[in-house]
Amino acid sequence: MKKLSLYIVIGVLFISAASFVKAGPTPIRQDEILQNGAGKFKVDIPGLPAASANVHSVQVEDLTIDVRETTTGENWDFRTYAPGDAHFGKATFRFRVGGRSHEELKGWVLDAANGKNIRKDISIIIMSRAGSEGRRYNLQETFPIKYDPGDYSPSSTVRTETLVVKIGRIEFADGGKENGAVNTPVDTQTGLRAAIALSPDDIMITKGFRIEVSDSNGKNEDNAWETATGGALEIEVAPASTGSAQFNVTPPGHTFVEELQLRGPMTKSRTWLTECLAHSLQGKATPFDMTIVELLPGNRVGREHLYQSCIVTRYVFPVLSAEGTGNLYEEVSIKPERLEIK
Known about the structure:
Elements: H1 2-22, E1 41-44, H2 49-53, E2 55-60, E3 64-69, E4 81-87, E5 90-96, H3 101-113, E6 120-127, E7 133-148, E8 157-158, E9 160-166, E10 169-173, E11 205-206, E12 208-215, E13 218-222, E14 227-230, E15 233-237, E16 252-257, E17 260-265, H4 271-281, E18 288-296, E19 300-316, E20 329-335, E21 338-341
Antiparallel strand pairs: 1-6, 2-5, 3-4, 5-9, 6-7, 7-9, 7-10, 7-15, 8-11, 12-13, 12-18, 14-17, 15-16, 17-20, 18-19, 19-20, 19-21
């Protein structure tokens, strides 16, 4: 009888140990893990269906939340805390250039710079492997603070342009539909389905660029520059929070254009630059207008960006050497007052 009781006890212990082993974490299903890449995310910008369909990349700055101490006299052992104000940063969207996408972006940026149709709610939708909605970020009350047409280069490359927006606040959402693909989002202003992504034939491929300078001596065409960088249109953010505000309020402020850098082989006929430098050193204001024109295959012309009332702020001298070979290069930085996007 004692031996039987011992067997029963050992059996009970074995069953209990086995139940402990089975109580481990359940492995996550692979189809629950969201992936990155083309076709794995969507962006919906109200009123900009073509631009929404041709987003190349998205980067949202970190969300930070202040820590508010709530320790009282009753908390004798550990300090206690609660969440405080939330701080939302910026989101950067890079778009493929082509079709109506550029016109839509240009329209929003110029409207915001002129104080109308400023804010939009942007949805970023991350797709599951089955094609349904996996996660969603709703960026609310955003407005553009920077438009960058991209770097200009004579090499053949797919053109992209960048838009940076200031975020008012963010809503987070888990996956929506479990089965079935998400429908193409409906444009909230027009009621139409969002535009289809650009085909390879519609994406703008640049073969280079030319520069046209208009000053007191007339119009000069300069085709020798190899690169043009910077020159983005920016809208200042003017904090206007109050002590009772849950979120930081950030209305748009003044509009300005960042410096533009040109680099290329030195030519003997760049009169507009030498005269501008000479006048600047004499303290004379000699603003000029500069247009950058994209050159496309087939002798076609792409986008044009007119930088108005420019002054030279920096000049980089070429390096001269008896052992040097190849072309001499010069570099100049230009500060425009205004940018007209065509």
